[in-house]
């Protein structure tokens, strides 16, 4: 009996969302404009900025009303934002989780309010996958593997040990965990590759520089730097130059993201290889949002299209780079 | 001077740990025309924290606290980078950023001294709102600037010495002169001891309070310029995040009482260096990132315990239980120094 009542309520709420949206956007004159609540991680890098812009622009194009909030890298802010979206009865919630774990409670609240959730860019580790409709974003493990494959190829003739230092992203975040494990998996096949130091640089230039300075002093024999994003790599380049070494030659650098500043450094020969992680997922997100709100089924995992760049490819791609 | 004994010992111990793990830790070379070495790094990356802590010391000496310095760091960097990116000229940019910071500090002081709001609440307002202001200035983006003169402030070198270190030395010298050679330090301690009694004794307590908050904000402003200059970009979200807590910790480790009424600038500098050395240590000896915060917490707890007279007496003088009141009298003597 209770279940039936619950189902009925759910269907009612499903229909009711239109009237709710109508009264809210009453002055707007839109017949049934979808309202999307989007909680962004923050503005920690150029990549994130481009991601934010892509979401905002494509929402405008798709005629979706976007309620945007910036969590400033804090999970509690993000949970607060999602709760407020639930209270405002938005039609769909999309967010990029700051960290992987600890989302079950708030996602259940959204489910209880019958608001579909789309994850963008980063995943959550909830065992219950019914808590969200789909996950749109890059495959970070694959990115780590691509970075590792280039390294294996680059050093296939070398017999000496290759000393690698790693600048990890924010501790506990999905891209940091996955880029680390994907990379480790590929290079782990050959014992000559050795990660001699691995620390978090919080995805920021300042931290990347500070940590790299310490690495350079503690380990005078670094051959390769693997940074989980361009910004940390750019900070590290300053540290390497300050130490009188040539980035890209004395120390080979692999990064992930391919933002404009990173591509510039790649074209200048300071970075050796960048694995792209495209932030321009706005149009795909709006597409999915429309389908989800209309009740159509969507695949549980949608991967954004991405490539990799060598120095030559960067020179070609640089002039048309948007972000 | 005895007050500084424990902080100095802790700093020495931390450096020693580094020497064991990293043999070349103490070596300082001349590379690319500037000084290069781990010790230089600690001073260079510690410079902003030392500056913020110096300002915080004087605020705490008046019995107050300033939580807004982290946000002011972000505002200063954001405003300066915005101005430079719009070709407003370096001096105008720096002057405007520092001017705004000082004004914000004076506002804090006004809330505390004239309106009578508790310092922790008065500065909490700007701590929260200030970061929003920084993001408003940067429009939520990271502003990248390319100005070699601006780069000098936090990332450049003058006569082989990192410029940031020179700024710290200058600010420290001025502060020590003003507070220890002139009567200002005594007036600050007097206000911290008892603001009302000081006022009745003819000290302009309100003016002193407004001044120390403005000074703290100015220091934070300079630190903000350094931090953004070091990476040639302003990051409204992350610049100076939690630096206010590190600064309070540095002040306390340095032996300044949170109750106000006395302060030690030398202790604060050592406290800030301990915190920065700890950070560098974590990177050099390879503490896994997942346990970094726990490691820091353990070290800081140990530092605080070792500085506590009561704790030391309990642990090191178990047999001397028959003569308990000794530490109390010593504490009183210290207050007068």
Automatic annotation (TrEMBL), chain B:
Spans through the membrane: 35-60, 67-85, 91-113, 120-137, 157-178, 208-227, 239-258, 265-287, 293-311
CDD domains, per database record: TM_PBP1_transp_AraH_like (cd06579)
Keywords associated with the record: Cell membrane, Membrane, Transmembrane, Transmembrane helix
InterPro entries (alphabetical): ABC_transp_permease
One Pfam family, short name: BPD_transp_2
Lipid bilayer topology: Multi-pass membrane protein
Subcellular location(s) per record: Cell membrane
Main subcellular localisation: membrane
Protein name: ABC transporter permease
Organism taxonomic ancestry: Bacteria, Bacillati, Actinomycetota, Actinomycetes, Streptosporangiales
